[in-house]
Amino acid sequence: MSITEVSHRSPWFDDVINDAIERTKRLLKLDDQYHVLFLQGGASMQFCMAPLNFLSDGRSADYINTGTWSTKAIKEAQIQNKPIKVVASSEDKNFCYIPNNISFNKDAAYVHLTSNNTIKGTQFESLPDTGQVPMVIDMSSDIMSKPLDMSNIGMIYAGAQKNIGPAGVCMVIIRQDLLDLSPDNIPTMLNYNTFANKNSMFNTPPCFAIYTIQLVIKWLEETIGGLEQMDVKNREKADLLYNFLDDSSFYRATADKGSRSLMNVTFRLPNEDLEKAFVAKAVENGMGGLKGHRSVGGCRASIYNATGLDAINDLVSLMKEFEKTSG
Amino acid sequence: MSITEVSHRSPWFDDVINDAIERTKRLLKLDDQYHVLFLQGGASMQFCMAPLNFLSDGRSADYINTGTWSTKAIKEAQIQNKPIKVVASSEDKNFCYIPNNISFNKDAAYVHLTSNNTIKGTQFESLPDTGQVPMVIDMSSDIMSKPLDMSNIGMIYAGAQKNIGPAGVCMVIIRQDLLDLSPDNIPTMLNYNTFANKNSMFNTPPCFAIYTIQLVIKWLEETIGGLEQMDVKNREKADLLYNFLDDSSFYRATADKGSRSLMNVTFRLPNEDLEKAFVAKAVENGMGGLKGHRSVGGCRASIYNATGLDAINDLVSLMKEFEKTSG
Q1: Are the C-beta atoms of B256 and B123 separated by less than 8 Å?
Q2: Fewer CB atoms inside 10 A, N or C side of chain A?
Q3: What's the number of CA atoms in the CB half-sphere (13 Å) around residue B101?
Q4: Are B246 and B180 in a shared domain?
Q5: Under 8 Å CB-to-CB from A253, ≥6 apart: which residues?
Q6: With an 8 Å Cβ cutoff, is A227 touching chain B?
Q7: Is the pTM of this model over 0.90?
Q8: Which domain holds residue B272?
Q9: Interface predicted TM-score of the whole assembly (ipTM), two decimals
Q10: Once rounded to an integer, what is the mean pLDDT over residues B260-277?
Q11: Which residue is closest to A306 within chain B, CA to CA?
Q12: Do B168 and A40 touch (CB under 8 A)?
């Protein structure tokens, strides 16, 4: 039988899920306060679950708005009438930077932020100092891309499909004190404790997706050699591309220096016709997906963990050639 | 690129999901009032979503309790303080039968039932007459096992992992008038309209699981020849096993005649020691999974669509031999 056929109540699947959890704990250096869970519904379901679980006693939470995904997270707290506060936003400049020097509310239950913004191409270079308030972080697009200081992190969540696996599973890493905040009177499938108490198997989990995470995390640990090594590779890739963009008068990076994403490099050409022609040329050369998200236009190179340095070299060569023939 | 790598915003994936939907509509003879959706979280998430979406205006719903899964569905409505009514239950006889002659409330928003009860081994032979009130049916364990009269069905939901695909996706078939009941002020990912309005792609769907459903449904349509043919095969399998059980004085079927499941055949041996020995003997002969659910004991043969008649013949031969050597 294959992984799509074995029972999730079998010792075979126990080995898969437990190995994925143990490797995650080693890679992120998690202590015993943290639980590694596998949920469904993507990060979008977490936008709903975090306020539902952590704000039942009338407390507020602080949200930082750095783009499309943060905006959605804020909306899902507000739709539940949770009294959250948006303490910082970069909407004034179309989210091209990460706000800093933020004043947080000391009595907030948590601070929510999106560590990497896929659409706008920005990323927190370092996490903010939120004092005693734990952070809840959407890391869907940069989880496992570099080492992480967990000291003030209450929860991480990440749809798997960028860096750690296929679509259909969301990894949640949650600290015990946040689990203790969940009220009893919420639906079972929306309560983090349901997953923590049953090793993510209250009901049938997405077995194939969890199995694939296990394989990817094994590759990260054994082939790449850990998150420090992954970080070196990711920086090398991003530096190559950003240095080329900064030296160019034809191409222009759109995210501010100091806020630039190592995962999603957004850039513009002199005009939209040239952008369209460039994207078409790239497809001809076997490079798909370079069109920017429809909400911002321009171009975007998504260079997640799985992308090699060779692909960036090929892209830069193509960009040079396109400038020569069209510039 | 494989199905686990392509973007869900690509024409390749559009072809996959649209083909799965079209084949489902043909197999179940659905008219244009019905939407075929793919959600995550299994049937357990539907236990929460159905009352959340359909009972926002203070109306009640009728629930029929036929076992473990119905009981959980009832609990998830009650935890939300929805005023539901349990109009029938077979709990008095450990759920060994399907209640009939039920009085339904004419003003109920829906009648909820579990069409097949995996753990107790019972199944509705025909659906009850609920008058003008639409049925909402958990068909996780018998969807696509036989033709279905949709005339009074408002919604079907089914975790895919029994008859139509791998774990990690839940098929929801919903009629337009039930979609119209959802209030605006519920979380986006818990609103059926989110999925209906975006062809199940508001956020990244479980692509691999949907792809596998497409393949299974294609097999049902093209290789099996449709649900009438699937029904013939399923009845032949179940009849063989039930006839053997009814002729035996060693084995005993636990579900009442007229309420017996064609998918899960539950039976006992003269005592628990013999049951344990039989299950061990079966494993030795390559037949796993015959142990009854831990909540009821005994034995259970799950004979979903994918199980062939040969497997039932092998099982009956083994049962005969075991009786001869142990009886």
Answers
A1: no
A2: N
A3: 0
A4: no
A5: A121, A242, A245, A246, A260, A265, A266, A267
A6: no
A7: yes
A8: 227-326
A9: 0.96
A10: 97
A11: B5
A12: yes
pLDDT in tens, A188-214: 999 999 999 999 999 999 999 999 999
Nearest-by-Cβ selection for A4 from B44, B75, B166: B166
Which secondary-structure segment (H or E) carries A187?
Answer: none
Handedness of CA A180, A181, A185, A188 (dihedral sign): negative
Helix axes A272-284, A309-326, angle to 10 degrees: 130
**CATH number of the CATH domain containing B310:** 3.90.1150.10
Domain membership flag for residue B173: yes
Contacts of A2 (CB under 8 A, 6+ apart): none
- Convert the pLDDT of each residue in B92-114 to its tens digit: 999 999 999 999 999 999 999 99
Q: How far apart are CA B229 and CA B150, in angstroms?
A: 18
Helices B272-284 and B309-326 meet at what angle, rounded to 10?
A: 130
Regarding whether B287 and B167 lie in a shared domain, the answer is: no
Q: Which of A47, A48, A161 sits opposite B204 (nearest CB)?
A: A161
**Calpha distance A28→A26 (Å, rounded):** 6
The pairing of strands B62-65 and A252-253 is unpaired
DSSP codes joined into one string, A119-146: TTTEE-SS----TTSPEEEE-TTTTTSS
Domain identity same for B231 and B200? no
Please indicate whether, in this complex, the C-beta atoms of A204 and B47 are within 8 angstroms of each other. no
Residue, of A11 and A41, whose pLDDT is higher:
A41
Predicted confidence (pLDDT) at residue B299 exceeds the cutoff of 80: yes
Domain boundary among B189, B224, B259: B224
Rg of chain B in Å (alpha carbons): 20
- Share of residues in chain B with pLDDT > 70 (%): 100
Rounded distance, CA B259 to CA A187, Å? 31
| Number of domains chain B is built from | 2
Count other C-beta atoms under 10 Å from residue A279's C-beta. Answer: 20
Cα of first residue to Cα of last residue in chain A, in angstroms, is: 57
Q: Which residues of B touch A304 (CB under 8 A)?
A: none
Is residue B294 pLDDT above 90, yes or no? no
CB-based contact A87:A105 (threshold 8 Å): yes
Residue B220 to residues A58, B24, B234, Cα–Cα distance (Å): 52, 10, 13
Q: Are A305 and A232 in contact (CB under 8 A)?
A: no
**Per-residue pLDDT at B327:** 65
Please give the structure tokens belonging to residue A260. Answer: 């630039």
Cβ of B206 under 8 Å from any chain A Cβ?
Answer: yes
Give domain status of residue B4, yes or no: no
Average pLDDT, chain A: 96
Nearest CA in chain A to B209: A168
For chain A, how many residues are written? Answer: 327
* Distances in whole angstroms, Cα of residue B310 to Cα of each of A7, B134, B217, B236: 22, 39, 22, 11
Distances (CA, A) of B73 to B44, B78, B87, B137, B164: 7, 9, 14, 11, 22
Could you identify the residue written with the tokens 């799509």?
A4
Among the partner residues B4, B190, B208, nearest to A48 by beta-carbon distance: B190
Lookup: tokens for A196: 């923590």
Among residues A224, A244, A265, which one ends one of the domains?
Answer: A224
What average pLDDT does range B244-271 have in this prediction? 97
Q: Tokens 């990711």 sit at which residue?
A: A234
Per-residue pLDDT at B5: 85
